Amino acid sequence: MKILIIEDEQELAQNIGDYLAQEDYLCEFATTIAEAQSKIADHSYDCILLDLMLSGGDGLILLEEFNTRNRKDGIIIISAKNSFDDKIKGLKSGADDYLEKPFHLPELAARIFSIIRRKQFGKVNVIQQGELRIDLLGKTVQVHQTPVILTRKEFDLLLYFISNQKKVVSKNALAEHLSGDIADMLDNHDFVYAHIKNLKRKLSEAGCAGYLKTIYGSGYKWEI
């Protein structure tokens, strides 16, 4: 899962990024309105953490742009602005949640998980598709009630495919999802093929049907 942290307090941003990395999130950073606009224009995210008091303007500018672009990324405002009016304005402008500074990092992680679960998986903690069972909280996978051991990236890929069910996902989109904004600097997508090959093999060996299909020349599609 990929997170964009829009925060100009670099120490705080790094602390958030370090903590979320331990929770298996891939984090990218922006410190100004202009930098955030560039990131948002070029990439999609599972959740965006947005400070309102940024160099170059009010973070609410970004929320207004999200509304015009009809983006689906989850948004949590993290701000020292703690007035009731600011909170209402932020939520009405399109944010999914509002967390006042200072906050505890475990609470932030819990709110991120809740938003991603609600937006992508319909508020459930367990995804059941045929013989496949995925525990989102425990980050475990079972096929026919037998555990399937996946790496972090394989588990992330599985959730990404399911959240984009019946859509063709391109190799470029998969590379960006797995490696973030460095994807454009990679010479090839061999690492994507390797992760997908291993994921398909592990699911197949456990007795899972071939829900993950290769669409030659286009990418991959999860279909059940």
Account of the protein in words:
The protein has 224 residues and is α/β, with parallel strands linked by helices. The chain contains eight helices and 13 strands. The strands form four sheets. It has a five-stranded parallel beta sheet with strand order 2-1-3-6-7, with helices on both faces. Helix 1 (10-22) links the parallel strand 1 (2-6) and strand 2. Helix 6 (152-163) crosses helix 8 (190-205). The radius of gyration is 18 Å and the shape is elongated. The mean pLDDT is 88.
Structure summary, number of beta strands = 13
Q: In whole angstroms, how far apart are the ends?
A: 22 Å
Major pleated sheet: 5 strands, parallel
Beta-strand residue fraction: 15-25%
The number of helical runs is 8
Low-confidence stretches: none
Strand arrangement across the biggest beta sheet: 2-1-3-6-7
Order of H and E elements: EHEHEEEHEHEHEEEEHHHEE
Radius of gyration, rounded?
Answer: 18 Å
Residues in helices, as a percent range: 40-55%
Q: What is the molecular shape?
A: elongated
Mean pLDDT: 88
The structural class is alpha/beta
Write the layout of secondary structure elements.
Blueprint lengths: L1 E5 L3 H13 L3 E5 L2 H10 L4 E4 L2 E2 L2 E2 L1 H10 L4 E6 L4 H9 L4 E4 L4 H17 L4 E4 L2 E4 L4 E4 L2 E3 L3 H12 L7 H9 L10 H16 L6 E4 L3 E4 L2
Parallel strand pairs: 1-2, 1-3, 3-6, 6-7
Antiparallel strand pairs: 4-5, 8-9, 9-10, 10-11, 12-13
Helix pairs in contact: 6-8
